[in-house]
Structures are given as C-alpha cells and as structure tokens.
Request: fold
Amino acid sequence: MIGPAWVGDMVMAHTLVQRLRAQDPDAELHMLAPAATAALAARMAEIQTVHSVDFLHGEFGFSRRRRLGKSLRADAFDQAFVLPNSWKSALIPYFANIPKRTGWLGETRYGLLNDLRRLNKARYGLMIERFMALATPDGGLPSPSYPLPQLQVDAHNLARCLSEHQLVCDKVAVLCPGAEFGPAKKWPPRHYAQLAVRLIAKGWNVWMLGSPNDRQDAADIVQMAGSPAELVNLVGRTTLLDAVDLLSVAQQVICNDSGLMHVACALGRPTVGIFGSTSASFTPPLGPVGLVVEQALACRPCFSRTCPLGHLDCLESLWPEQVLSQINVCQTTFVASSTDVVRQV
Reply:
C-alpha cells in the first residue's frame, strides 16, 4: 500500500488494511509512506513491514521514485494499492513491476495503474469508503458495519513520556488546537483558552498536544487562560508516536478536524471534533464515542485552507458552551458503554 501523506488519512487507511487482512488472513501486508505518517503504520497490527520514504510534501522526485521502485522489485509484490490520488504516488509501484496496481483514476494515471477505478462520489461519501472500496474488484463495501481504525500503544514509550514530562494521569482532557491543513480548520485560541479554564474549574487536568507549527497558538492559549498549573503545554515537545501514546490515557479529547482527532478515535478515546471549513459527512470522528460540533451555515463546507469570505464565522461563532455540552454527552456515553479498545504492544 502506498500510504497517504496526511496523518488523519493514514489513520483512516487502517480500514483498508483491516479489510485486506479479513479477506486473506495469510496475506503479507506492507505500507510505504512519507516519514511524516509512516510511523503510524507501525502501530497497525496487521502491517508486517513499513517502508518510510523521505520525500517532502508535494515533492515530485521522479528519479528518486524510479530508483526506489526498482529497489523493491526483489520483494516480488503481487498487488499495490495506491491511496493518494496524485500521479507521482503511482510511480513507485509501476517501477517496482508490481503486476496489479490498484487505485482511483485521480490525476489521469493511465498506464501507471492497471486496475484503475473511476470514483463515484455519491456511492462512496466517506473517505474510508473510498479506501475500502479498492479491496474488491466490484468496489463492494463490507456490511453491516465498517471496521474502525485502531492503533496500538507502546506501553514502554508511554511510561517514558509520562515520566519525562512529569505527567499525572488523573482526569485528563487533551486539547489539540492545531490543523496542518490550514487556519479554516482551527477553532480560535481564545475559545480554547476559555474551554481550558472551564474544564479546570470542573476538576480536569488539561494537556495540549500538537506539532511545532502549533506552538504560537498553544502559547496564546496558555496566556489567555492565565497560565494555570493544570494546563500543561506539550505542543511541539513530542513526536507523533509520543502523542499517540499520551492520547491513549486521556479521558476526553477535544480537537479540530485534524490528524490527532483521528488518532484519538483510533485509540478509543471519547472525542469531540470541531469542524469549520470541512465536513463531518466526509471525515467524521470514527471512534466508539466520537461527537461533532459544527455550524449549519450556507457557506460551509467550503473545504478551503483559509476562509474565502474572510470572516471564519463557521468557527468564530462556535462557543465554548457548545463544546462543553458535547463533552458532557461524550462522557455520559463513554461511561455507559465502558468501552476501551486501546491495544498495547
């Protein structure tokens, strides 16, 4: 499988991985992906080998892709599933001489893919449906229900992270204020700050997780919240896999529609996803207890990185009280279900 470059998409790709394993329990499954997401594949129980590549996001690298493809010929793969829709993502399986190369038409990939599918967006409304449909020639989907993404937890790394950051796992709510896609996905820092204050007043310990790109937003949240001791800013201080393991002990996660939202759901954590320019009808929080906060506006979803109208009303007008209300529902549902699907290695 040629995996996606976005964290959330890689997590959702686990639905295809699970479907392939269910169809053939003896199949040897490999994942090739950029370094930014390859580590997540190693937390999928069904994946035997992860091949990490160091292409930058958007990099073409024709010669390097050709060399890499040729180097994989000795592995004699039977089939390749190309999940990204870009032309360049289909080059490596082509140069690897993999006899069956499956994927959506995407950027007119005639020749590179020889098991080419034409996407019917009405039939496959969810991203996970578009991934899973590749598993069968007729594009049929599993029924009556779909597999949920599930990630494993490294207990030893979790213990190291907790010790290194001097964290106590007592009624922990994790805020994930970032979104690599762009600002039209990001709930304003002042709202996150107000939410943090309200959660702390209710007895929660609040951690923040995110990438180095989210450091300024996180610093603003801490400052606007009054720098309380119960608010621990870990943004930019962990690796992606550290964040995976730390999220596994959260009793509540509040995220933008981002990669960490999908990670939290794949760990079985109660998750509230905040949606702005994107749609929960396409990439919902796929967890046992995943709820959505969004506004019904005529201008959304626009799927833009920045607000094309300049006001960002879809997120500005979502108040902390609305998120708190969903947190209450989330907690009640989670306790009632007594669900804990975290897998440890």
In short: Confidence is low (pLDDT under 50) at residues 341-345.
